[in-house]
Amino acid sequence: PVTIFVDGKEYQVNEDKTILEACRDIGYDIPTLCYHPALSVVGSCRVCVVEVEGARNLAPACATKVADGMVIKVNSDRVKKAVKFNLGLLLSNHPNDCMTCDVNGRCEFQDLIYRFDVKDMFPKELRNTPYDESSPSLFRDMNKCIACGRCVRACEELQGLSILSMVNRGHYTLPLPALSAPIAATDCINCGQCATVCPVGAITERPDFRKVLEEIDRHEKVLIVQTAPAVRVALGEEFGEEPGTITTGKMVAALRRLGFDYVFDTNFAADLTILEEGSELLDRVKNGGNFPMFTSCCPGWVNLMEKLYPEYTKNLSSAKSPHEMLGALAKTYFAERIGKKPEDIFVVSIMPCTAKKDEATREQLKVKGVDGVDVVLTTRELGKLIKMKKIPYESLPEEEYDKPLGISTGAAAIFGTTGGVMEAALRTAYEIYTGKELPRVEFEDVRGFTGVKEAVVNLGDREIKVAVAHGGSNVINLVEKLRSGEAYYDFIEIMACPGGCIGGGGQPKSNKPGYLERRMEAIYAIDEMSTIRKSHENPAVLKLYEEYLGQPLSHLSHELLHTHYKD
Ligand code: HC0
Ligand code: SF4
Predict the structure, then answer these.
(1) DSSP assignment of 429-475, as one string?
(2) Which one, 3, 358, 517, 523, has the greatest CB density within 10 A?
């Protein structure tokens, strides 16, 4: 440790830290805009500047390491004046329409403008750039951009895609696709990583929550909602909880108070996916089929494959993603049980993901002529609805999902993190193939944040080699190795976002260090607390096969639960 002095007080801090990290650790909040813990440091926005004794210029705290004996002022008049000046410049081309902005109340820029009391410092010079509404997943309003460059770095560093780059100069510097094309005309996979790091409302999910409010107000249809595995470990953050707080019961209660008739769990369909996809894998092993087999539940990955590696689409599992399976069953199996037709049912999916919005519009996912899922809302949009309706989240009782599409196992819970779909599939495939009970359900090799994880699983008379990749750049590296013949696996789980769905582009924005690790711990805690931890032991799934589908890969399963891709 080294000794530093902050505004006259002495502290011991770790010598590897920057001034920003050290000050935040000891309880000083230095403002930032271009800084984000998941991204590289550029030090361009100049709102984290501090005074360092002996240095002539103010130093960017995010890009300056601490040193022994360093005397730092974070709150001097000189610092405040500089920060206010820099914020004033940014405000001069930022519209003042906070009241109708989709991130109102959750905007880092708005908070700083208020904190530093920035008013009319420079004449307004707005850009008047048209909105980009080309994507079914994302909404881009470059009038609100403050040119922090986080979106550019997220797309390049995390996703390996570089769809956006900073173009133009001065007031007109903006993160745009090549040739200023609409985002839908690029290789953008709709992952939303750019949106989840945007400190303002320049890139957001396409807002769909008003459609849901209108449908609830009309209430002509049976209103069904389902929640993805990763939403329950993150939604609390929208209400001030720490990352990794599990608020499943309150979320269910809030959805009932919003007006939904049935609250179902995507986790039920995750168990079902394991039976369909696991059977598909074992079928390919026994009867020959395309290897490697890839998981197909992540729509960002399906988009990436269709756009960059179409030669591999035949290797994707044909299983629909769990929320689409649940949508299909809600409109058939469940509808029949309550005496309704598919078109009488309205299904909303609450997802940690922006790409699920575009997935839900795919023609080939229709069931009996209607969409399986009508609207997808992100975790952030659900948080917003609960706040708009003033539902007292903190004091809600814990309620249970409705039956039967609300019953699930620990294996389904772990779908929400990288490695979880693989681990759940292995728990089931092992027991079905060998007919023996697994001595231990945990597969440690596929857990954690390593970009590409691998394992070899012994099935008695045969071994299968598996891999797990998450985050676009790791995914691209892995697929390139497969293409060149440098690597071979039988079964591969891919999630396009870093960390899997816990780090999805629709999750609460966070710049707390360790937020993904804590969400991941919460996911595994849900699995450990579950009484049933293997998908093939889910009693509601077994009953569904008995009463309705027959067996995995049956004719009806194919009709309702499987799909095809663009190639
Ligand atoms: Fe996921 Fe899913 S696990 S993609 O990461 O498979 O979004 O949370 O809902 O559908 O179950 C996201 C999360 C899901 C789906 C499931 C899968
Ligand atoms: Fe890049 Fe994903 Fe944003 Fe598209 S949605 S621009 S792929 S980060």
Answers:
(1) HHHHHH-S--S----GGG-SS-SEEEEEEE-SS-EEEEEEEESHHHH
(2) 523
Write down the ipTM of this complex.
0.94
Residue 109 lies in a domain: no
Last residue of a domain, one of 70, 90, 110: 90
CATH number at residue 189: 3.30.70.20
162 within a domain of the structure (yes/no): yes
Residue 332, amino acid: T
Helix H or strand E encompassing 9:
strand 9-13
User: Which ligand ends up closest to the CA of 202?
Assistant: 2
Distance 493 CA to ligand 2 centre (A): 20
0.80 surpassed by pTM: yes
Pocket test for ligand 2, best of 158, 163, 203 (most atoms within 8 A of CB): 163
Q: Which ligand sits closest to the CA of 471?
A: 2
Sole residue written with tokens 């209103």: 223
> 176 and 238 share a domain?
no
CA atoms within 13 A on the CB side of 341: 6
Give the pLDDT confidence of 407-443 residue by residue, as tens digits.
Answer: 999 999 999 999 999 999 999 999 999 999 999 999 9
Residue 223 DSSP class: E
Q: Is 414 in the pocket of ligand 1 (CB under 6 A)?
A: no
Q: Which residue has the tokens 């032991």?
A: 537
Pairing verdict, β 49-52 and 59-60: antiparallel
Residue type (1 letter), 312? Y
Give residue 69's domain range: 2-90
- How do strand 463-470 and strand 452-458 relate by DSSP bridges? antiparallel
CB-CB contact of 452 with 566 (8 Å): no
Tokens 């949508």 belong to which residue?
327
Domain end point (choices 146, 170, 205): 205
The tens digit of pLDDT for each residue in 370-402 reads 999 999 999 999 999 999 999 999 999 999 999
